[in-house]
Design a protein that fits this description.
Elements: H1 5-24, H2 41-51, H3 54-61, H4 68-75, E1 97-99, E2 102-104, E3 108-110, H5 123-133, E4 138-140, H6 148-154, E5 159-163, H7 168-180, E6 185-189, H8 199-204, H9 214-221, H10 224-233, H11 249-257, H12 266-275, E7 279-285, H13 288-296, E8 301-304, H14 322-328, E9 333-335, H15 342-350, E10 355-358, H16 360-392, H17 409-413
Helix pairs in contact: 1-9, 1-10, 2-16, 5-16, 13-14, 15-16
The structure holds flavin mononucleotide.
The site of flavin mononucleotide (FMN) has 23 residues, from helix 16.
């Protein structure tokens, strides 16, 4: 799969010329559903949808199979209401936390997501800079567009590396590179032993490099802002597998199809624990007993996650196993999948999570406006958390408990 500038210029150049025509014809571009001002994460989703070709938006947005998990991840928050206390001094409020001995300005961070460069040029760096400017950690994916070293060089804060294990020798190299580049935390993603059935991507023929067909060219034509960025900056690559000497297209293809080492088991986790000297987290846990086993094998904590509904189409929401997991381990529990509001984050903290990872929420900001959009999404969520803390009269996130939720939240959410 050769990804070269000529392909990009030919495909995107044609698309742009057509784009001007399409714009004159009034096709594509800003639609009535795009908000004039983005007030919340879903407004940013609308802006992202407007800028991105459908194929790229679907890659970012899509879930596996019938997308029940994708919808359920958000619907589950409807089942929990907040129960305020009254007549407390809430004039000073705190949402900063300390995790693994490091301070962060809010109880959330940016989750590892692959191919960020297709959403915005140098997307990883834009996410990193916005996170660090706000005092939050950023996690880089194995399938990133910028390399481990490029991101470390641009870093002014806490940076984490997420590991997909396709083969052990390659993983060892990646882990050693992350260690040398002083990543504080390694996140082992455990839920991609095989690929989720993401039908949007199959239908759209989504691949890297983009295969030009009538429909992909039309898609580019009707989204000229995105096409222009691609033309100017070139087709993003899998940064960790590209060097000045060689572009390992096989490894890029492996990452693209996310065909992983399906033999990776508890013994392999022990191997990884010996290899990695820093904080080690296992991501993709959906069963409290697996969380117990992770910490018994030496993990410093777990990330409850169903991969944003992108792997198992009918997966349980991680929120549903949070209270049980909290009752079984004392180590930090992080959580993701479906967080779009500050009040969602407050609910997870009240049920026992230490912090939340954001996948699509910050990607919407990135795809709409680059670093500025990510920074704005972060600001919006911090403001929503602060407002929620004031409304429920719990001035410090560290004091959130299930008492602030409807009586039966924990049992209602239990499997
Ligand atoms: C476009 C996209 C790419 C992703 N790529 C990765 C990845 O490379 N590694 C990984 O561990 N998780 C990946 N994820 C999952 C996220 O880390 C996270 O678990 C998920 O997005 C959380 O759900 P949310 O999008 O509803 O916040 C990806 C998610 C999205 C949306």
């Amino acid at each position: 799969m050769g990804i070269n500038r000529r392909d990009v210029v030919m495909g995107v150049g044609g698309a742009l010329v057509g784009g001007l025509v399409a714009n004159r014809l009034g096709v594509g571009g800003t639609s009535a559903s795009v908000p004039a001002e983005a007030l919340n994460v879903m407004d940013y989703r609308a802006l992202a949808r407007d800028r991105l070709p459908k194929m790229v938006f679907d890659f970012m947005e899509g879930g596996a199979s019938n997308e029940r998990a994708l919808a359920h991840n958000m619907a589950v928050f409807d089942r929990i209401n907040l129960r305020p206390r009254r007549l407390k001094d809430i004039s000073k409020r705190n949402q900063s936390i300390e995790l693994f001995g490091r301070k962060q300005a809010a109880p959330f961070m940016i989750a590892p997501t692959g191919m960020n460069g297709i959403l915005w040029p140098e997307g990883d760096i834009a996410l990193l800079k916005a996170a660090h400017a706000a005092g939050l950690p950023f996690a880089l994916s194995t399938a990133s567009s910028s390399s481990i070293e490029e991101v470390a060089q641009a870093s002014t804060g806490d940076h984490w590396f997420q590991l997909y294990v396709s083969d052990r020798a390659l993983s060892q190299t990646l882990v050693e590179r992350a260690q040398a580049a002083q990543y504080s935390t390694l996140v082992l993603t455990s839920d991609v032993a095989i690929n989720g059935l993401r039908e949007r991507d199959v239908r759209n023929g989504f691949s890297l490099p983009v295969k030009y067909s009538a429909s992909t060219i039309w898609d580019g034509m009707t989204h000229p802002r995105w096409s222009m960025d691609l033309l100017t900056h070139g087709m993003p690559q899998m940064g960790n597998f590209v060097s000045k000497q060689a572009t390992d297209t096989n490894k890029q293809a492996t990452m693209m199809s996310r065909s992983m080492d399906a033999t990776f088991d508890w013994a392999a986790l022990q191997w990884l624990r010996k290899l990695w000297k820093g904080t080690l987290l296992v991501k993709g846990i959906l069963n409290a007993d697996d969380a117990v086993r992770c910490v018994a094998e030496g993990a410093d904590g777990v990330i409850l996650s169903n991969h944003g509904g992108r792997q198992l189409g009918d997966a349980i929401s991680p929120l549903q196993v949070l209270a049980e997991t909290r009752s079984k381990i004392t180590q930090p529990i992080l959580i993701d999948s479906g967080y779009r509001r500050g009040s969602d984050i407050v609910k997870a903290l009240a049920l026992g999570a230490n912090s939340v990872l954001l996948g699509r929420a910050t990607l919407y900001g990135l795809a709409a406006k680059g670093q500025e959009g990510v920074a704005d999404v972060i600001k919006i969520l911090m403001n929503e958390i602060d407002n929620t803390l004031a409304q429920i009269e719990c001035p410090d996130v560290r004091d959130l408990t299930p008492d602030y939720l409807t009586d039966d939240s924990a049992s209602m959410l239990k499997v």
